[in-house]
Amino acid sequence: MNSELERIAQGISSMEIRGAGRIAVASASALRSVANASTAGTVEEFSSEVKHAARRLVETRPTAVSLPNAMRYVIRHGLNGDMSSVEDARTSVIKAADDFIENANNALHLIGEFGSRRILDGEKVLTVCNSNAAIEVMRHAAAQGKDIEVFAMETRPRFQGRLTATALAEAGITVNLIVDSAARYYVREVDHVIVGADAITANGAVVNKIGTATAALAAHEARTRVSVAAETFKFHPDTVVGELVEIEERDPNEVLPASDHIDGVRVRNPVFDITPSEYIDIIVTERGVIPPQASFYLLTNLFGWHLTERDPWEQ
Ligand code: RUB
């Protein structure tokens, strides 16, 4: 097993590498190093090594569709066409991985640019978890000289909100760290809720860190705008053919350490939830700002005829 592949796969499982965008980029770079280090003697052997690596990565965490979408991109672009030698195939997979990573970085920049236009000077923003895309929007707004103040939900049990608060403070943004259950208390005070996404379905529902749906519901009640910042590789192609998004449930120890075990009590730890499209105003993507109801069209436009194909790592 390629050691860089194993390092990245384990890093994703243990959440040292986390956040849907980072998982996708890290997985693309893992395929790159598998391609780089391969000693395969034939193109077939090389392809099966790359597909095997993709399967290993896809199995690390089930919810963020960015990961399988990154694998689809690299395999479909990298292992396509006429590859007469292992060297051709290697060059092609490395190029596809590099392209994916470059597109992902450019996408973040564009999302920051587009999303920040919706933020006015003096606005207060509530956010959940630690989303690079959502942070990029806030950073861009601050860089344009807008004086914004952010309320970052701490995001139990892994406290990703602390990472967000740190990043925003480093960008010179006024930031308040709050407990998750204070979301409704503060939502009347804020002008805008901005979150990221792990997966967006054909009907415009957004799967994101647990607590997002509660914050969006409170925002809906308070008539506060909810924006989702997400690269197009967060759109879930399988939902167009009726699949549901699997919600990851992690180790109960993250919520209550085994040493604090309470007799007769089962601890549950679902780590994502689903916000219906009615509670979302816009989704900011690198292709533009869309209403959640346009998700189906974006998905078919993005994946087109691939929708009914089997996943490339299953072939
Ligand atoms: C992270 C999370 C983030 C999305 C979007 O969950 O829910 O909001 O992944 O992040 P976890 P980004 O910490 O369990 O991975 O915009 O960085 O892709």
What does this structure look like?
The chain is α/β, with parallel strands linked by helices. It has two domains: 3-109, Up-down Bundle (Four Helix Bundle (Hemerythrin (Met), subunit A)); 118-304, Rossmann fold (3-Layer(aba) Sandwich), CATH 3.40.50.10470. Helix content is 43%, strand content 13%. The strands form two sheets. The protein has a seven-stranded mixed sheet, with helices on both faces. Helix 7 links the parallel strand 2 and strand 3 (174-178). The radius of gyration is 20 Å and the shape is globular. The two termini are 20 Å apart. Ribulose-1,5-diphosphate (RUB) binds next to helix 2, helix 6 and strand 6. Residues 18-22, 64, 129, 131-133, 160, 196-198, 208-209, 271 line the site of ribulose-1,5-diphosphate.
Instruction: Quickly give the CATH architecture of the largest domain.
Output: 3-Layer(aba) Sandwich
CATH hierarchy, class of the largest domain: Alpha Beta
**Oligomer state of the chains in this structure:** single chain
How would you sum up the global shape? globular
Number of domains: 2
